[in-house]
Design brief:
Low-confidence stretches: 223-227
Largest sheet: 7 strands, antiparallel
Distance between the termini: 34 Å
Order of helices and strands: EEHHEEEEEEEEHEH
CATH topology: Jelly Rolls
Number of strands: 11
Helix content: 10-25%
Radius of gyration: 17 Å
CATH architecture: Sandwich
Strand order of the largest sheet: 1-2-8-5-10-3-11
CATH class: Mainly Beta
Structural class: alpha+beta
Number of domains: 1
Number of helices: 4
């Protein structure tokens, strides 16, 4: 699936951020919506849940057991390329330019909020970067994303399907209560870089063991090309 996007460097609640916007996200988002909703029943039925961000159940609570970026759908492959492009754009500006900033692994899951569900304040540390992509705002009002500055102030981003926001993993954020008649669908991720895995420096044969399993997209090229 071919898609074009634009990347903008910005600050969100004082956090350095990349905003990536697809030029025409409608076709992409329709395919992502189908991919998420088609798989949701099996994921919820067949994997354990863990309460997260004030949600006691639902797709988000199964986030450790699947990775949207490894699904074979063309739309997921397109999103994967956008996520990698956006992360590398952030690191090009805010990293130190060394091989230690090479991406090594990404965890990526989908959120489906229904009724008056919301995501409470949380962060993605120890991830180097976090990302949020809105697939469907679900209609209705609310559903905005709040990003919190270090001093406690916050910035609200209006729901915008087709926009990917990338910022430091320690940045606290939340999603307002959803009031629409459709599920509010979003995709979130954690990105890790080489400097966060000291086993790579030791040349351990199992250096990537922490990043194995269905939760992870492992970026082998980024590891193998570095001595």
């Amino acid at each position: 699936m071919s898609a074009a996007w634009q990347i903008e460097h910005a600050a969100v609640a004082d956090h350095p951020a990349v905003l990536l916007r697809f030029a025409r996200p409608e076709t992409l988002n329709a395919a992502l919506r189908d991919a998420i909703l088609d798989r949701e029943p099996a994921i919820v039925a067949n994997t354990p849940s863990t309460q997260v961000a004030s949600l006691p159940d639902g797709l988000t609570t199964h986030w450790q057991h699947f990775n949207v970026l490894t699904w074979p759908d063309p739309a997921c492959e397109t999103l994967r390329e956008a996520v990698l492009s956006g992360c590398r754009a952030w690191l090009d500006v805010h990293g130190d330019g060394s091989h230690d900033d090479a991406l090594i692994a990404i965890s990526c899951w989908a959120n489906a909020l229904r009724g008056d569900e919301r995501l409470g304040p949380h962060h993605h540390a120890p991830a180097m970067l976090l990302g949020n992509y809105l697939v469907d705002d679900g209609g209705g009002s609310g559903g905005g994303t709040l990003y919190f500055a270090n001093d406690g102030a916050h910035e609200r981003l209006q729901p915008e399907p087709g926009r990917l926001v990338i910022c430091p993993g320690h940045g606290r954020h939340a999603v307002e209560r959803h009031t629409g008649h459709r599920p509010r669908l979003s995709i979130a991720f954690d990105a890790f870089v080489r400097r966060q895995n000291p086993l790579l420096y030791l040349g351990a044969p199992d250096a990537m063991a922490p990043f194995t399993g269905p939760r992870w997209l492992t970026l082998h090229d980024s590891v193998e090309e570095i001595d």
